[in-house]
């Protein structure tokens, strides 16, 4: 039995001000929380680049712990956890959520949502030339197909072109690096030239 509601949850408005929320829990503070609510001994814990993400080694596997105070967007962090769980259960390329000892998908602690997910090793994608984006596109398509059946939040319909432009813009600076920015730009311009009707189609934005 999976509990979709977090513990002691209260109605919140997101995104939230950084000045009005507590600091993310550090590695030392997470140790007793993980033992009490997930029931596993922690062999090793290391902070990722983000202070809200930690890599944790349990006796039987490696996991990722996320502490989300709801700073970054308008969606309740617990809904995001439910969404990731839905995607994983439907076979999309998404991490599985490790349930708490009482069967919850996440833990509400103070003004933060804590979740634990499976660790998925990444690899550097070959994005030169542009056809190298094919496998990434297939993965995104799978996410969108399964995302349409998520019922945890009303869907907002917006033009597909807005999403693609946002995604590729972030890719140029955060995902594929500056060296591939020219290919990303060429890809978007090609889409604009050849698929205007497709880019204008309104598609669901879940998060």
Brief account:
The chain has 207 residues and is of the alpha+beta class.
- Beta percentage is 15-25%
Could you give the order of strands across the largest sheet? 1-2-3-5-4
In quaternary terms, these chains amount to single chain
Q: What is the gyration radius calculated from CA atoms? A: 19 Å
Total helix count?
6
Fold and architecture overview:
The chain has about 210 residues and is of the alpha+beta class. It has helices at about 25-40, 75-90, 135-145, 160-175, 180-195, 195-200; strands at about 45, 55, 60-70, 105-110, 110-120, 155-160, 200-205. It has a five-stranded antiparallel β-sheet with strand order 1-2-3-5-4, with helices on both faces. Helix 4 runs antiparallel to helix 5. It is globular, with a radius of gyration of 19 Å. About 20% of the residues are buried. Mean pLDDT is about 80; it is low at about 5-10.
Question: Would you spell out the secondary-structure blueprint of this structure?
Answer:
Elements: H1 27-38, E1 44-47, E2 53-57, E3 62-68, H2 77-89, E4 107-109, E5 112-118, H3 134-147, E6 156-159, H4 160-175, H5 181-194, H6 196-200, E7 202-205
Antiparallel strand pairs: 1-2, 2-3, 3-5, 4-5, 6-7
Attribute tags:
7 strands, 36% helix, globular, 207 residues, alpha+beta
């Amino acid at each position: 039995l999976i509990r979709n509601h977090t513990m002691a949850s209260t109605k919140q408005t997101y995104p939230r001000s950084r000045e009005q929320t507590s600091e993310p829990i550090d590695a030392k503070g997470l140790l007793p929380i993980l033992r009490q609510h997930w029931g596993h001994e922690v062999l090793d814990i290391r902070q990722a680049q983000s202070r809200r993400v930690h890599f944790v080694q349990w006796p039987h596997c490696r996991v990722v712990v996320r502490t989300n105070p709801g700073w970054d967007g308008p969606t309740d962090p617990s809904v995001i956890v439910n969404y990731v769980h839905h995607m994983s259960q439907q076979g999309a390329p998404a991490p599985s959520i490790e349930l708490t000892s009482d069967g919850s998908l996440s833990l509400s602690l103070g003004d933060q949502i804590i979740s634990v997910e499976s660790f998925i090793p990444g690899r550097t994608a070959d994005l030169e030339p542009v056809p190298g984006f094919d496998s990434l596109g297939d993965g995104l398509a799978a996410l969108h197909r399964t995302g349409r059946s998520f019922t945890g939040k009303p869907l907002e319909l917006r033009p597909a072109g807005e999403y693609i432009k946002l995604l590729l813009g972030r890719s140029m600076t955060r995902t594929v690096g500056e060296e591939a920015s020219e290919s990303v730009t060429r890809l978007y311009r090609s889409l604009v030239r050849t698929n205007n009707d497709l880019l204008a189609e309104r598609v669901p934005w879940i998060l």
